[in-house]
Write a sequence for this structure.
């Protein structure tokens, strides 16, 4: 029999009221970084827990006796194919093992030597893998020069932290007990590939030179898995410069999201030429690939279920070696989807929805719960006429049922449009390309023009009545064209430019073409681009003036500031701070630095006292 206790307080209730708290699930799924509790009711009882692993993953599994007549627990680890035991704890309190196969592994728990009964706890950490879980939020990313705190909630509890390191870096990792019954903490350090590297050997820290490059994992446990309590942990890395990695996830790790048109976002990785994104529940199955070599550090969140926990993981593709990101997780909140409404044509119309969320005009999109039925109403002014709906298939009659993100387009024309003379046959529009990606363009600068061609492949004149750009970033895209009436077999061109403004982010819009093609009166072209931010660097990172006589002024030291990004770097000021700031001064010629440009700050030191 087994149970899952989600809060530390319930652990004490478990010991007192176990009759009420114990469940009867056999082979329950176990999250990485999670502690679970169970009871062996007879000497012959065997409990089992399952988790998904990949060949090469390292699993650290700990279990301790909490009460009863048994002397301890005996753990065995079975591979996915049902073959013989892959490893066991040989009567100890845990397993530390690099698994050999990929699939659903099973941990079995029995009383040591099949003697006695009692309660036990069980914790499992997987490297690489998530370093926290919903029932134990301790763990996460630790940066050089940072100190964090956590709690060992149960004797088998294993907390985990990760950081990026490079072969040759030296790391100093310290941890001390701050409260509780445990005698201290024991640290272990694991490299990116799940191999074993270093441990604190019962001391209070690790002093170690890294052998490999990538995402390292530190585990924290109570010394000899005895007792519980609070601790702190600190990391010093030499050199202290943060190493290349995948940082700043959105949604943030351990957060809750509403899932309304949300996207997964992370920091750009220098040198990356694409990203692979994996997403899923990561308990009894692998994460699914939802983004294959995506060009930008963002991808939309797939459909998710309310109150479920989802994990995600990013791999940056780079010529000098892939960069593997941490495993992050979030809780899914209310499930909903986005309805966007655009207007095309030369007329003027007001569009509203039956819930009062959309008034387009000013507000042209809103989020709704899944399954919501929405009625869209179009009100043309006196000089306009509503010519019908375009966009997604469900928009045809203005009644939309929200089961996915939906885009509807209202065609609103003037009452007296230009009507071509009657001809035999119909026009037929062909537009190429159907999407344009301008790539990276500095903020405040115009891209080179990209071109879209409209061709009439039909048997009558094609009349283009309007070409408009709509969408979230419509104002940052512009177009000029020579298109009005296109005889059969002829074509015209549209020149589109991208002029991005802040904020720095991925930009998109839709260019809509309205014509008299009876089968395709509305054609859309997707427009995309990005304006990456500027990036500041300074050289050197420190200035040493050496020995200077009190009251004298040192020689001038120069610091060069450079914009290594794409957009213009605006320097609002250069200042000196610190306990002796008044003894240093600087002058500079820094204001606006275009990409690749530099400026200099001249720094002097005038000491006012010895020391």
């Amino acid at each position: 029999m087994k149970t899952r206790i989600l809060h530390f307080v319930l652990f004490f209730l478990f010991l007192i009221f176990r009759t009420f708290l114990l469940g009867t699930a056999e082979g329950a799924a176990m999250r990485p970084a999670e502690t679970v509790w169970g009871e062996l009711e007879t000497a012959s009882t065997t409990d089992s827990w399952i988790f998904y692993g990949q060949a090469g993953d390292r699993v650290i599994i700990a279990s301790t006796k909490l009460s009863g007549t048994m002397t301890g627990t005996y753990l065995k680890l079975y591979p996915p194919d049902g073959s013989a035991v892959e490893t066991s704890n040989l009567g100890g309190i845990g397993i530390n093992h690099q698994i050999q196969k990929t699939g659903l592994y099973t941990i079995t728990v029995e009383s040591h030597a099949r003697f006695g009964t009692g309660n036990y706890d069980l914790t499992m950490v997987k490297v690489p893998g998530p370093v926290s879980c919903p029932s134990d939020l301790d763990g996460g990313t630790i940066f050089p020069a940072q100190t964090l705190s956590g709690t060992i909630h149960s004797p088998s509890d294993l907390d985990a932290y990760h950081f990026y390191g490079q072969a040759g870096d030296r790391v100093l990792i310290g941890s001390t007990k701050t409260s509780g019954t445990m005698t201290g903490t024991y640290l272990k350090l694991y490299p990116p590939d799940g191999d074993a590297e270093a441990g604190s050997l019962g001391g209070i820290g690790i002093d170690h030179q890294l052998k490999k490059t990538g995402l390292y994992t530190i585990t924290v446990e109570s010394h000899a898995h005895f007792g519980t309590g609070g601790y702190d942990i600190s990391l010093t890395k030499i050199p202290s410069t943060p190493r290349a990695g995948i940082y700043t996830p959105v949604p943030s790790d351990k957060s809750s999201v509403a899932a309304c048109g949300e996207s997964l976002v992370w920091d750009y990785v220098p040198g990356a030429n694409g990203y692979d994104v994996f997403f899923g529940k990561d308990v009894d199955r692998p994460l699914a690939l939802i983004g294959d070599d995506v060009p930008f550090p963002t991808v939309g969140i797939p459909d998710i279920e309310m109150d479920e926990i989802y994990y995600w993981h990013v791999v940056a593709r780079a010529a000098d070696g892939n960069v593997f990101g941490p495993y992050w997780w979030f809780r899914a909140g209310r499930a909903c989807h986005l309805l966007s409404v655009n207007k095309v044509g030369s007329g003027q119309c007001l569009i509203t929805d039956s819930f009062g969320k959309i008034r387009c005009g000013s507000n042209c999109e809103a989020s709704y719960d899944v399954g919501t039925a929405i009625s869209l109403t179009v009100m043309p002014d006196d000089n306009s006429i509503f010519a019908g709906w375009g966009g997604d298939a469900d928009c045809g009659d203005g009644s939309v049922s929200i089961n996915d993100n939906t885009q509807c387009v209202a065609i609103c024309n003037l009452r007296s449009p230009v009507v071509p003379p009657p001809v035999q046959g119909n026009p037929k529009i062909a537009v190429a390309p159907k999407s344009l990606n301008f790539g990276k363009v500095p903020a405040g600068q115009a891209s080179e023009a990209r071109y879209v061609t409209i061709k009439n492949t039909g048997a009558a004149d094609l009349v283009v009545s309007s070409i408009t750009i709509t969408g979230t970033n419509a104002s940052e895209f512009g177009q000029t064209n020579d298109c009005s009436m296109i005889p059969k077999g002829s074509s015209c061109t549209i020149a589109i430019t991208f002029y991005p403004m802040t904020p720095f982010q991925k930009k998109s819009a839709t260019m809509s073409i309205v014509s008299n093609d009876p089968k395709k009166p509305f054609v859309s072209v997707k427009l995309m681009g990005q304006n990456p931010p500027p990036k500041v660097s300074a050289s050197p990172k420190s200035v040493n003036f050496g020995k200077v006589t009190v009251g004298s002024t040192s020689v001038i030291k120069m610091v060069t500031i450079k914009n290594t990004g794409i957009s213009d770097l605006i320097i609002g000021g250069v200042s000196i701070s610190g306990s002796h700031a008044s003894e240093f001064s600087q002058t500079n010629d820094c204001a606006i630095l275009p990409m690749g440009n530099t400026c200099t700050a001249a720094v002097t030191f005038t000491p006012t006292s010895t020391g």
About this structure: The first strand starts at residue 2 and ends at 3. The two ends are 69 Å apart (CA to CA).
